[in-house]
Design goal:
The complex is a heterodimer of chains A (169) and B (101). Chain A is globular and about 55 Å long. Chain A contains seven helices and no strands. With 169 residues, chain A is an all-alpha fold. The longest helix of chain A is centred in the middle third of the chain and has 26 residues. Chain B contains three helices and no strands. Classes of the chains: A mainly alpha (169), B mainly alpha (101). At the A-B interface, helix 1, helix 2, helix 3, helix 5 and helix 6 of A face helix 1, helix 2 and helix 3 of B.
Chain lengths: 169, 101
């Protein structure tokens, strides 16, 4: 009996992700776009779970859907003027933009078609209960310097964001 | 149906990347442009994690750093948006034309 659950969940999650992404770029109301983006992020977290990456899925939900999108919603609340929802939503170069992006998409598909024979067939078996331990070992041994640099980057970003948004420096 | 392989995940990531790019070059609202940039970053993350399944754990470590980077960049970008909105009362990028000749 062929397993049908992975196929079903893959198509369900990727369908939700792509449909929500299309809703993100086409909605007039920015709050609707933010909610659609949250759906996309949750569907992507499900796809990471299917790829045997539970730590990245957890980080995605906590940081991205729970942190960054909340920040977006707060700022939308601050700058949401009703007038902007009645104006034209797409700029004057929309046709050129769509054609160029679709050309980029076809380039991606062509490269995947040509190079699809170099992927190894059997995925490496990574024991899933050990994933967080392995990520922690890699992050605090081999990748310690990028970890510290990332924390410095977050400090700089905090200082920059506070200075930008203050009324009087 | 063919079993789900790496190529399926790469095609989904490419679709998200193209949708994000269309959002960046097409929309006028700055907040939606920033959200399309987050879509692009998520497409890259999906690519990294899909390839990490085939080789070793480096893709997942990289994607954690990409998520951290996206948080910092979203914070700074929204700070700039608030600073600009305080001056000009608009969220359309078409009207940010003080340096245009």
């Amino acid at each position: 009996m062929t397993p049908v659950a992975p196929t079903f969940f893959f198509y369900l999650l990727s369908g939700v992700a792509v449909a929500s992404a299309i809703l993100v770029i086409t909605r007039k109301n920015p709050v609707h776009s933010a909610i659609s983006l949250i759906f996309t992020l949750l569907a992507l977290a499900g796809l990471y779970l299917m790829l045997y990456a539970p730590f990245v899925a957890g980080v995605q939900i906590i940081l991205y859907a729970g942190g960054i999108m909340v920040l977006f919603l707060f700022v939308i609340m601050l700058v949401n003027i009703e007038r902007s929802q009645r104006e034209v939503q797409f700029n004057q170069q929309w046709l050129v933009g769509i054609v160029a992006s679709l050309a980029l998409g076809f380039l991606f598909l062509y490269v995947y078609r040509r190079g699809s024979s170099i992927f190894p067939v059997n995925p490496v078996s990574m024991p899933e209960p050990q994933n967080t331990q392995q990520v922690a070992l890699a992050l605090f041994r081999g990748y310690l310097l990028p970890f510290e640099v990332a924390s410095l980057l977050l400090l700089v970003a905090i200082v920059g964001a506070v200075v930008m948004a203050k009324k009087r420096i | 149906m063919a079993p789900i392989g790496t190529l399926h995940y790469l095609v989904v990531a490419a679709a998200l990347f193209v949708i994000g790019t269309i959002g960046v070059v097409t929309r006028r609202n700055v907040v939606i442009i920033l959200m399309s940039i987050e879509l692009i970053l998520n497409a890259v993350n999906l690519n990294l994690v899909a390839f990490s399944r085939l080789w070793n754990l480096n893709g997942q470590i990289f994607s954690i750093f990409v998520i951290t980077d996206a948080a910092a960049e979203a914070a700074v970008g929204l700070g700039i948006l608030i600073a600009f909105f305080r001056n000009k009362e608009t969220v359309n990028v078409d009207e940010v034309d003080l340096l245009k000749w």
